[in-house]
Amino acid sequence: MTLEEKVGQLSMAAGGYAVTGPLLGGDVTADIRAGRVGSLLNLWGAEVISAVQKMAIEETRLGIPLLVGFDVLHGHRTIFPIPLAEAAAFDPALWAATARASAAEAAQDGISLVFAPMLDVARDPRWGRIAEGAGEDPLVAAEFGKAKVFGFQGANLEEPGAVAATVKHFCAYGAALAGRDYASVDISERTLHEAYLPPFAATVAAGCAAVMPAFMDLAGIPMTAHRPLLRGWLRGKQRFDGVIISDYNALAELMRHGVAADLVDAAALALVAGVDIDMMSGAYHKGLPRAIAEGRVSMEEIDASVRRVLTLKQRLGLFDAACRQRKAETPSPAPGPLAREAARRAIVLLTNKGALPLPPSLEKISVIGPLADARREMDGPWAAAGDREKPVAILEGLAAALPDVEIRFAAGVGIEGEDDSGIIGALELCRDADVIVLCVGEAAAMSGEAASRADLGLPGRQMELAKAALDLGKPVVALLSSGRPLTVPWLFERAAAVLATWFLGVEAGNAIADVLTGRFNPVGRLPVTWPRAVGQIPIFLGPRPTGRPFAPNDSYTSKYLDISVRPQFYFGHGLSYSCFAISDLRAKKAKLPFRRDGRIHRRDRQ
Known about the structure:
TIM Barrel; Rossmann fold; 2 domains; EC 3.2.1.21; hydrolase; Cellulose_Degrad_GH3
C-alpha cells in the first residue's frame, strides 16, 4: 500500500441527504475512487451503499471495501425509547433485543458500523446528552453497554444482521462543566476510575469493536489526544485491540483546544495517542504525510492503525461480500410488539394519588398540552432513519384504547414561544371533564447533542397552562415527555398523578395508553436522581459522606438555606398499581458452629 492509500483507510468522509434520499457528493466520490477514503458516515440505504461499495471494490487499485457508519442510538428505521428511558426498564434482555432489532434494520440498509451505545455516566440533567445514555450509575451503564454490544454484534460479526458497535464517548464526557456540551471536564482520579471508566472496561471485555473518544478535554488534555488513557489505559490495561474512531471533526478541534498549531500537529497528536480513524476533519489526509516526513509519527504506527481497520473489515465479512447480501428493498420494521413493550416498560409512575389506573366509568376526558398530538416529537433526539410521521401520538393512543369515552383535545400553548391565547379555549374543554390528561415537556430537539439547558422547568407558557388546569379542581394526570428530569415541584405537589413518559419512540401513544388504562402495570424505575431545583445539581446516588451530614436541628451541617437537601425523587424511584404488604413474619432459630482457631498477638503501644 502507498502512504496515500494507508491514510485513506484511516479517513472517514460523510454522505448527505436530498429530498429523494441519501446521496454522495462529487468530491467524496472522487476520493473513494482515488483510495483516499476508507469509511463513510451518514449514508444509508442498500441500493446507494451497494453502488458505493462496488465503486470502492471495482474502481480502486486495491479493491478494499468501505466501512459505513451511522448513528443508531435507539433504533434505525423503527425508533425505540431514548436510551435514558430504556434504562428505566432495568432489563438487559430487553436492551439487547432492541439493539438486535436495530442492527438487523441497519445491516439491511447497508450499514456495517454503528456509533452506539453511549456509555457516558451523567449526573447533571442540564447536559442534553443525558438522554442518550443509561443515567448516573456506572454499574447500570456497564450492564446497559454489555447488552447493547451483544445485541448489535451478536456472536459473530459476519452473521447476517450484525453490525460493529462503537462505545462512546471515552470518557467522562457526562461531567462537562456546568452541564454545557463540549465544555471541559476536571474530576479527581478516583472519580474517573470509580464512576466513568467502568462502563468502558465492561464493554471492552464484552468485545466491542470500536471506541470513540469524546470531544472535550479532561484535566487539560483533549480526549482525542489523550495518550495516557487511549494507549495506556484502553489499549494497555484493558487490552483493547479494536478500532478507535474520532468524533466528528475532533482532530481539527485540537487547534481550538490550544494543543495543536495546525493539522499536521493535530494528526500527529491523535495518531500517537491511538486514534485510528479521523472522522471528517481531513487532518490525517492533510497532515500525516508531513508528520511522517518530519519523524513525528512512524510508519509502524500508521501500519498498526491500518491493520486494525482492515481487521475490522475482515471480521465484518466485507472482503467476502461487501454488500453482505443486503436486499435493496426497504426492510420490514422491527416487530411492533417489541417497540411497544420497550416503550411501556420505560414509563415511570412518579406520583399517584389514586387517579390511576383510569377508572372504567369515565365518560369524558380532556387532553391538553402541546405534546398530546405531537407525533414528530415522540421519537426524541437521534431518530436516525426513522420516519417522523410514524410514531403514535398520545392523543391517538388514548382514542384507540378508549373508544367509548368522549375525548376532547386542545393544545392550549406551543412547546415553546409566548403565545398563550389558546389557554382559555383549552380550559373550556376541561370544565366538565372527568379527568384532565396534561401532556407537557420538551421538544425532541431540546435534548441530545448541543442541547444543554440552564432552566429545567417547562419551556414556553406550558407552566401557565398547567397551573390554570390544576386550578379547575379536576383530577389532572400529567405526562412529562422529555429527555431529562424536569424541575416542576409544584406539579408533583398538585397533580393527581405524574408520569415520566420521556421520548418513547414509534409506539409512544399506545404504550402510554396501556399504562394509563391499567392494561400494563408500570414497572419503570428512575435511572437518574430527579432534582427539586437546578441548584442541587449535580445530585446522584451514593456521594461520599461528609463529616457534617445534614441534621435538621444543627445549623452547621451540609444543607441549603432555601430548599431541602433531598431530591424530588431518588435513583430507583418508581410506583406501580400493585400494593405490597408483609405480615406474620417469623424467624427460625439457627445454630452456627463456632470454633476458635489460632492465636491473637497483642502489642501494646508504649
